[in-house]
C-alpha cells in the first residue's frame, strides 16, 4: 500500500474497493460521474417494496446505460429539514436495490447513509463505498465499519444539523472553514483506523450554506486540493439554481451542467448528479480540453 501510494504521480489516487477493484482518480483521468439513486416510497403506486425496488433498479440501469461511472444509493432522501428515516426502513429500501444492481453490473455502488447498520447491510449486498454526509460524526460505528471492511469513505462538510442547517449559516471564510473542517475529519478518520488513501472529501453544497457560500466554495474549489484527497462535488439540482436562475428542480440541468464543467475544470474527481447523460458529455469535453485521458 505504502509503496504503491508513493509510486503514484502527484494528485493521482487509487481507491481500493472491497472485493479487489481499484478506482483510479486524479489529473490523469477524467472526472467520474456518480448517478444519484434515491430509493423512496412511491406515493403514486399502491406501495410495496417490490414496485419501489423495480422502479429504482430500472432507473439505475438507465443511468448505467447513460455512462454512469458510479451509483450513489440512498434511502434517506427526505432530509434535510425533515425527520430521519429509521435505519430498518433505509435497509428495507436499499438492500434489494443494491443487490439487484450488483448482480447486473460492475459499476461501483456507494451507500448514502450516516448509519453503520445501514452501511453494513449495504456492503453485504454489494455496495463498495460509504458516502456519509455527517463525515463520520453521526454514528461511531461508521468509522469502525469503514476500517474493518477497507471501504473508501466520502467525508462531507455540513454546518449544523439537517433540520436547522439552512436557518442562519455563518462563516468567517467559508473556503478556509470548510477546508479546516475536512482536514480535521480526515485526521480523525485516520486516527480511527481508516487508511488515508481511502478517504474522499466533499464541501457539501447546500448543507448549511447560503448562495454566497455555495458560490465562494465553487470559486475556491481548487483550494481543497491542499487536503491531498480526491474531491467529490454534489450540486445537482440544488436550491442555488432556484436562487440564480429561478429554476424549478426539473429546470436545473443546464445550471447543474455549468457547475459540473467548473468543478471538472478545477480537478474534482467525482461529480454526483441526477442527469447522468448530459453530465457525462460535460466531463468528457472538459477532459478533452485538458488533454486528460478520456474513457
Ligand atoms: C433533500 C435535500 C434530499 C438534499 C436530498 C438532498 C450530497 C450527498 C446529498 C452531496 C455527498 C441532494 C441532497 N447531497 N452526498 N447527499 N455530497 N457526498 O440534493 O452534495 O442530493 S442529498
Poorly predicted spans: none
CATH class: Alpha Beta
Rg on CA atoms, Å: 18 Å
Intertermini distance: 25 Å
Query: Helix count, per DSSP?
Result: 10
Which compounds are bound in this model?
ligand 7PM
The largest sheet has its strands arranged as 8-7-6-5-4-3-10-9
Name the shape in a single word.
globular
Looking at the structure, the CATH topology is TIM Barrel
Q: How many distinct beta strands? A: 10
Strand content: 5-15%
How many domain modules?
A: 1
Secondary-structure element series: HEEEHEHEHEHEHEHEHHEH
Keywords:
295 residues, alpha/beta, TIM Barrel, eight-stranded parallel beta sheet, two-stranded antiparallel ribbon
Characterization of the model:
- The chain is globular.
- The protein has one domain (31-81, 88-290): TIM Barrel (Alpha-Beta Barrel).
- It contains ten helices and ten strands.
- The strands form two sheets. An eight-stranded parallel beta sheet has the order 8-7-6-5-4-3-10-9. A two-stranded antiparallel sheet has the order 1-2.
- The two termini are 25 Å apart.
- The chain is 41% helix and 14% strand.
- Bound molecules: ligand 7PM.
- Ligand 7PM is lined by residues 36, 77, 79-80, 112, 131, 133, 154, 156, 202, 204-205, 232, 234, 238, 272.
Amino acid at each position: 500500500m505504502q509503496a504503491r501510494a508513493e509510486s503514484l504521480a502527484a494528485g493521482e489516487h487509487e481507491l481500493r474497493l472491497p472485493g479487489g477493484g481499484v478506482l483510479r482518480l486524479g489529473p490523469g483521468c477524467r472526472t467520474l460521474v456518480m448517478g444519484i439513486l434515491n430509493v423512496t416510497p412511491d406515493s403514486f403506486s399502491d406501495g410495496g417494496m417490490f414496485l419501489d425496488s423495480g422502479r429504482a433498479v430500472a432507473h439505475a440501469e438507465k443511468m448505467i446505460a447513460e455512462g454512469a461511472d458510479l451509483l450513489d444509493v440512498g434511502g434517506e432522501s427526505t432530509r434535510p429539514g425533515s425527520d430521519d428515516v429509521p435505519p430498518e426502513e433505509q435497509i428495507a429500501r436499499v438492500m434489494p436495490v443494491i443487490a439487484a444492481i450488483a448482480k447486473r453490473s460492475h459499476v461501483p455502488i456507494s451507500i448514502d447513509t450516516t448509519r453503520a447498520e445501514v452501511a453494513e447491510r449495504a456492503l453485504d449486498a454489494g455496495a463498495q463505498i460509504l458516502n456519509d454526509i455527517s463525515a463520520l460524526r453521526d454514528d461511531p460505528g461508521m468509522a469502525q465499519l469503514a476500517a474493518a471492511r477497507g471501504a473508501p469513505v466520502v467525508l462531507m462538510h455540513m454546518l449544523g444539523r439537517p433540520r436547522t442547517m439552512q436557518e442562519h449559516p455563518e462563516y468567517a471564510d467559508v473556503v478556509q472553514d470548510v477546508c479546516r473542517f475536512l482536514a480535521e475529519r480526515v485526521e480523525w478518520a485516520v486516527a480511527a483506523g481508516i487508511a488515508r488513501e481511502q478517504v474522499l472529501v466533499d464541501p457539501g453544497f447546500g448543507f448549511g450554506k447560503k448562495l454566497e457560500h455555495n458560490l465562494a466554495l465553487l470559486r475556491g474549489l481548487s483550494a481543497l486540493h491542499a487536503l491531498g484527497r480526491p474531491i467529490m462535488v454534489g450540486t445537482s439540482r440544488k436550491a442555488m439554481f432556484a436562487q440564480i436562475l429561478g429554476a424549478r428542480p426539473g429546470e436545473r440541468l443546464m445550471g447543474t451542467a455549468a457547475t459540473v464543467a467548473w468543478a471538472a475544470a478545477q480537478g474534482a474527481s467525482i461529480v454526483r448528479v441526477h442527469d447522468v447523460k448530459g453530465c457525462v458529455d460535460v466531463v468528457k469535453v472538459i477532459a478533452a480540453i485538458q488533454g486528460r485521458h478520456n474513457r
